[in-house]
Amino acid sequence: MGRWRGWCRVVVVVMVLTCGVVLEGALVEPTERQVIQRARWEAGEVPVSGTLPAGAMGVVEARVVGGMAAGTWVRVQSLEAGATQFRGTVTVPAGGWYRVSVRLRNGKREESIGEVERVGVGEVFVVAGQSNSANHGEERQRTTSGRVSVLGPNGWQVADDPQPGAGGSGGSFMPPFAEALVQRFGVPVGLVAVGAGGTSVREWLPAGAQFTNPPTVLSNVRALDGGLWESKGALFANLSARVKGLGIRGCRAVLWHQGESDANQRDPTRTLVGGLYTRYLGDVIRGVRREAGWEVPWMVAQASYHTPEDPGSEDIRRAQAALWTTGVALEGPNTDLLVGAMREAGGQGVHFSGAGLREHGRLWAEKVGPWLETQRRTAVTWPGLKLPGTENFIVAGRPAFLYLPPEEKRTNPQPWVLYGPTLPPLPDEAERWMHERFVAAGVAVVGVDVGEAYGSPKSHAAFDALHAELVRRGFATQGCLLGRSRGGLLTVSWGTMRPEWISGVAGIYPVYDVRSYPGVTNAAPAYGVTPAELTARLTELNPISRVEALARAGVPAFLIHGDQDVVVPLPANSGEFVRRYQAAGAGGLVKLVVLPGQGHNMFEGFFRSAELVDFVIERARAGRITAK
E strand or H helix at 32, and its extent? Predict the structure, then answer.
């Protein structure tokens, strides 16, 4: 009946009265505040499952509203005769929170099954180890963005300390760590906490794993004949079940912070030598991967500190680092460096103070963040649409792509169109028709991935570098801009600062006003300012506020937008673009095509518009002529 995700399945039961008949339906997934690990950098597959009463007929559909979601009803499953369960997925852009509604449609009859107000697609981490991976810090930490959840025995909830599922009742590093990732990547973060205080790596081994010297705490191990000991396997079983319950690739990584209970024990016979630590933790990692059914990434911290008099074990730190160098795990932070005021009881304890927890979270984010950036660049094939003549290269340290026309259609200088957004995997198959026509007409298509910049001036250096590379290759100095959705922010923000390089502007339901999407609060980190500072500087920084520069330069524009777009409202974006052109005396240079009844979706009228394609080709060629 669908895939288990964690300990429990929260069931939303809805009673709907339709035509005098009470329909009882149960929505099992998604659940409130659930965070789904994105399968690709730009999107994830949100599970939709539940039950229906006997005799239900028709099609189960889901609608996702919020952020960049299309907000349209999509099919989840067509019911077969006698079906009482449904299960499927819907593709949802990375981000959230989203509202997910599920209904049963049979002809004109529509009956609600359920609705969840907050569902996110972002990053999910399992946190394991001993007390400093759990809730033993001196000061409980709280989330601040409202976009961090933790999966506990009662389902997903706000990730304020103490974290359910982990030992202790105090504070943890998890809220500040997760909040740092929310700020950096702009997506919700989900946590699964399983840490257990005072545990040795020996206690985390699978059931039946044997060793000669026991740990200090014996509750998770048992003595055997002949002086041997073995793990009871309870901690391993719980960790494996939590990872497996998230599904294949259902989390980004396991974060492991443990080692204090193996280093420098008061009874030297309970201390674990480094070589055995490396072996045992390797056995835990491989065992969890085997149980989960996929190669779960692990990030291992260096952790062995006890007190100022016992600042840790170099032997255990080397053992932890050995897992990095052998490729078993990724490099985590060296938390033994957190001493003095970073520790409890005025610097005398093994656990972290409030300041120490926040610094601990920052250190983890410093390790995870750059690694996530590499995942963004390598986890997907980019661009999603492959055409003959596709080339990938790097400019200013950022991934870039190029669709070259067939050899016989290339010219010097070469006309080009700059496409955005180039977040993997865009451009995609939905745009094949228009991109094939561009290259067939001798126009190259180029793009550079600047991340979720939302039109920030910080992205301009990458666009400048791309332009320099094009000119070096014999391309025209001027080219046409083509922005799809938030690609409008990226292309026009740069274009308004370099109008002498722009021969035309085209947009498919483009965003031009950061207030409409993603909103000032979400955009501010990309601009490197606070929301209040961005609000005060909107006239200077907001792309829509600068389009007069293009109008004054005589740059023609062609925009296509749906009048029912609630994600990127027409009046605040394409409508305001036209108004500002008219106010600048350039109304004759801009054309806006409004598609009645259309929202922010994949309607063919957006991506198979002959008028838009002809405009882009003509303006790209005009850039070549101007370059002469």
Answer: none
State the Cα–Cα distance between residues 158 and 163, nearest whole angstrom.
9
Q: Alpha-carbon distance 189 to 206, whole Å?
A: 29
The two three-digit tokens of residue 502, written as one number: 């722009």
- CATH 2.60.40.10 holds for 12-120: yes
Q: CA-CA distance, 477 to 502, in Å (whole number)? A: 8
Residue 381's pLDDT band (boundaries 50, 70, 90)?
low
H helix or E strand, kind and range, residue 133 = none
Terminal alpha carbon distance of the chain: 66
Which CATH topology does 381-627 take?
Rossmann fold (3.40.50)
Strand segments (E) across 30-159: 34-37, 43-51, 59-65, 73-78, 85-93, 95-106, 109-129, 148-152, 155-158
> What does the DSSP assignment read for 161-181?
SSPTTSS-SSB-SHHHHHHHH
| Banded pLDDT at 15 (limits 50, 70, 90) | very low
Please determine, for residue 536, whether its predicted confidence score (pLDDT) is greater than 70: yes
Q: 96 φ, ψ to 5°?
A: 125, 165
The confidence score (pLDDT) of residue 377 equals 62
Q: Is the pTM of this model over 0.70?
A: no
Query: What's the CA gap between 111 and 573, in Å, rounded?
Result: 35
Tell me if the bond preceding 215 is cis, omega within 30° of 0.
Answer: no
- Mean pLDDT on 47-72: 89
Peptide bond into 413 cis (omega under 30): yes
407-456 per-position pLDDT tens digit: 999 999 999 999 999 876 789 888 999 999 999 999 999 999 888 889 99
Distance in angstroms (rounded) separating the CA atoms of residues 376 and 417: 24
Rounded to the nearest angstrom, the gap between the alpha carbon of residue 266 and the centroid of all alpha carbons in its chain is 44
DSSP secondary structure of 538-584: HHHH-GGGGTHHHHHTT--EEEEEETT-SSS-TIIIIIHHHHHHHHT
Domain edges within the chain: 12-120, 122-376, 381-627
Question: What is the reported pLDDT for 24?
Answer: 64
Specify the range with the lowest mean pLDDT, choosing from 10-19, 81-90, 521-530.
10-19
What is each CA distance from 205 to 135, 199, 280, 401, 540, in whole angstroms? Answer: 22, 11, 7, 46, 58
Fold of 122-376: Rossmann fold (3.40.50)
Please, which pLDDT band fits residue 396 given cuts at 50, 70 and 90?
A: confident
> Cβ contacts of residue 252 below 8 Å, gap of 6+?
37, 123, 124, 125, 297, 372, 375
Tell me whether domains 12-120 and 122-376 share a fold.
no
Question: How many helices and strands (H and E) does the chain possess?
Answer: 16, 26
By C-alpha distance, which of 486, 574, 597, 493 is closest to 541?
A: 493
Query: For residues 528 and 534, is the Cβ–Cβ distance under 8 A?
Result: no
